[in-house]
Design a protein that fits this description.
Elements lengths: L5 H9 L3 E5 L5 E4 L1 H7 L3 H4 L5 H7 L4 H8 L5 E10 L3 E14 L2 E11 L1 H20 L5 H14 L5 E8 L2 E7 L10 E3 L4 H8 L3 E3 L16 E6 L5 E6 L7 H36 L3 E5 L5 E4 L1 H7 L3 H4 L10 H15 L6 E8 L5 E13 L2 E11 L1 H45 L3 H32 L6 E4 H15 L3 E4 L6 E5 L3 H14 L7 E9 L2 E8 L27 H12 L3 E6 L6 E12 L4
Parallel strand pairs: 18-20
Antiparallel strand pairs: 1-2, 1-5, 3-4, 4-5, 6-7, 6-11, 7-8, 9-10, 10-11, 12-13, 12-16, 14-15, 15-16, 17-19, 19-23, 20-21, 21-23, 22-23
Helix pairs in contact: 6-7, 6-9, 7-9, 13-14, 14-17, 15-16, 16-17
């Protein structure tokens, strides 16, 4: 018998796994120390006793195979057997049975068993977690996912207590928990100063063997150890126990697997929530929106698109977007889209004619952008805006520009020429008139004529500014421009106009209408001056990259509350409470030059100072 074979005993004792032999009826024959220890009994107590192996085989279809092995009709038998261990509880053995013969005759069946309890538990847990993953994906709320995660940690992974935290400002709020957690009144933990917060910040799992010695552990209850696993960016799942060192790397592995299912489900829920929000926004906008894939196949259109096109959704989905426009327009649009494909542009904009199903043409602006995903760009989104009103407005502006141009020609030639004739003839009559009473009346006519000519010049300059499509700044001589306007105003004004110091020989960035700025400032200083002896003082200086020109008068001054209004700021153009079109034109021109204009109080008792600052084009000596 095998019990008399010392070599076999030696081999079986050294196998390391659970090993023993049974006779042809399944009774223990050679009992090794490992088997006796496994049963919690002495080897001699087991010899001759029917083995648990035999009990197991008789209950299954493997008993016939065992008998064939004994009879020499097969070489081995494999079976898996579960039973209750004396100390470790439920155990699972993977057993391999082989026939042992002596001198060709059956002697015993050698059984070598390997404890696969952990492997079987792992497989069972994985299968259960797979089922959990399926059920978690059916949840439509984050709270529901967290509740299922807690229940799975308790029932499948056999953790005593579990809690899920979500970030809420600078704290981690509890979303789901086992009934035993947390202690009464605890609803959140700080992100700084807690294991949950540390796990969330670092994104790394953490095993706490002893909460009393851990640097940031702050147990809310009689908990001594824990396992903390991040749920991506969504929060943290914690398993806790009342005894120390309750968790190992295998627990962490299963917890991470469970939490990965929760993270995936929450990602899906938040993506769907964002998608619903975006769809609501897209449907709320008045613009027509469509989405196409890389092959220009329509995947989505909003209601505004359907209404604008005059078509049902089912008729457009799945079609080529190029089917719905004129060939010439489609060709231009495709050319622009290719710029996106080549990476030259992030967005393209095209004006074209949007065609309805009835053949009507709607002026439209199309904006096209690529659809970006974490793994790259797929497809494009198009936003179509009806610009019929804008086109009508542009046509009105063009018509108004033509009308202004016609009016400008009238002001420049007809009115200006006629008023100059009136001025010269009136001056001639005044020089020959000896009647002082009539001469006084003609002086009033001359003043009104000069004012009309000045106003005509301002209107002409303003219309030229309005009609200019793209006025570019260029260097303009400050001295030549300013001196010419001073000489012109001084020649016909009843005021003392003088220059303080000298005008710098520099150029400023402006254009041909710079003379209108100074002409209107000088005229304003003369016309609104009620002093017995009106005076106007002009000064200019350079500083840094700017040139500063001031026009001071000794008139009545301007109250602080009107210093902005006088240029028409904040008012309805020419209907402002300013002093007229001249200062409005000054403001418009100086703004277009990138400069500034303001009015200040004069340091004397009376008067105002108008200050213009312009960008210097560079020093020169020849202007």
């Amino acid at each position: 018998m095998a019990s008399q074979d010392p070599d076999l005993r030696t081999v079986l004792e050294r196998v390391g796994d659970l090993a023993f032999t049974v006779d042809g009826e399944g009774r223990y024959d050679l009992v090794t120390d490992s088997l006796a220890s496994f049963h919690g009994r002495a080897p001699g107590d087991l010899a001759g006793e029917e083995s648990r192996l035999a009990e197991h085989l008789r209950k299954t279809d493997r008993w016939a195979a065992f008998r064939e092995l004994v009879a020499g009709e097969r070489d081995d038998v494999r079976t898996e057997m579960a039973f209750d261990h004396a100390d470790s509880g439920r155990q699972v053995l993977d057993l391999r049975l082989s026939r042992h013969a002596v001198d060709g005759e059956f002697d015993s069946v050698v059984a070598v068993g390997r404890d696969v309890t952990a492997d079987r538990r792992r497989r069972t847990a994985l299968e259960a977690l797979h089922d959990v993953a399926t059920s978690i994906q059916t949840e439509d709320t984050v709270e529901g996912v967290c509740e299922r995660t807690v229940r799975a940690a308790e029932t499948i992974l056999d953790f005593d207590s579990c809690v899920v935290f979500r970030p809420e400002g600078d704290r981690m709020g509890i979303v789901a928990k086992s009934e035993e957690f947390p202690a009464e009144g605890i609803e959140s933990l700080p992100i700084e100063g807690s294991v949950a917060g540390q796990t969330y910040r670092t994104g790394e799992p953490c095993i706490v063997d002893d909460a009393s010695t851990h640097p940031v552990a702050n147990p809310q209850g009689p908990y001594e150890s824990g396992l903390s696993v991040p749920i991506g960016e969504h929060g943290v799942c914690q398993m806790i126990a009342t005894e120390p060192r309750a968790f190992d790397s295998r627990d962490q592995e299963f917890a991470e697997l469970l939490v990965s299912h929760a993270e995936s489900a929450i990602d899906r829920i938040e993506r769907e929530r964002d998608l619903r929000m975006y769809e609501a926004i897209v449907e709320a906008v008045d613009d027509a929106v469509y989405v196409v894939d890389d092959d220009r196949c329509v995947e989505f259109v909003n209601d505004s698109y359907l209404e604008m096109k005059g078509i049902d959704r089912s008729d457009v989905l799945g079609t080529q977007i190029t089917e719905w426009g004129k060939d010439a327009d489609i060709e231009r649009i495709v050319e622009q889209v290719e710029r996106i494909r080549r990476g030259e542009r992030d967005m393209v904009k095209v004006d074209y004619e949007f065609r309805t199903v009835d053949g009507d043409a709607i002026p439209a602006e199309l904006r096209i952008t690529p659809l970006s995903f974490p793994d790259g760009e797929r497809g494009r989104v198009g936003i179509i805006r009806d610009i019929s009103e804008r086109k009508r407005y542009e046509r009105r502006l063009e018509e108004q520009a033509e009308q202004l141009e016609a009016l400008n020609r009238i002001v420049r030639h007809d009115i200006s020429n006629d008023m100059n004739v009136v001025l010269e003839m009136t001056k001639a009559v005044r020089e020959r008139l000896e009647d002082e009473h009539l001469a006084g009346r003609l002086d009033r006519v001359l003043a009104a004529t000069r004012h009309t000519i000045e106003l005509t010049q301002s209107v002409r300059d303003l219309m030229e500014t309005m009609l200019a499509e793209d006025r570019e700044r260029r260097p303009v001589s400050l001295r030549r421009t300013l001196e010419a306007e001073i000489d012109d105003i001084a020649g016909g004004a009843d005021a003392d106009i003088r220059v303080e110091g000298s005008i710098p020989s520099v150029s400023v960035l402006a254009d041909g209408l710079l003379s209108s700025v100074f002409r209107n400032l000088l005229a304003n200083a003369v016309q609104h001056n009620d002093a017995p002896e009106p005076e106007v003082i002009v000064a200019a200086e350079t500083g840094g990259g700017d040139v500063r020109v001031s026009v001071a008068d000794n008139g009545p001054g301007i109250p602080d509350e009107r210093k902005d209004e006088i240029f028409g700021k904040g008012e309805a153009g020419l209907d402002s409470e300013g002093t007229g079109i001249g200062l409005y034109l000054v403001q418009t021109l100086v703004d277009s030059y990138g400069g500034s204009v303001r009015v200040e109080d004069r340091e004397t008792d009376r008067g105002s100072v108008f200050v213009v600052e312009l960008e210097r084009a560079g020093a020169d000596s020849g202007h």
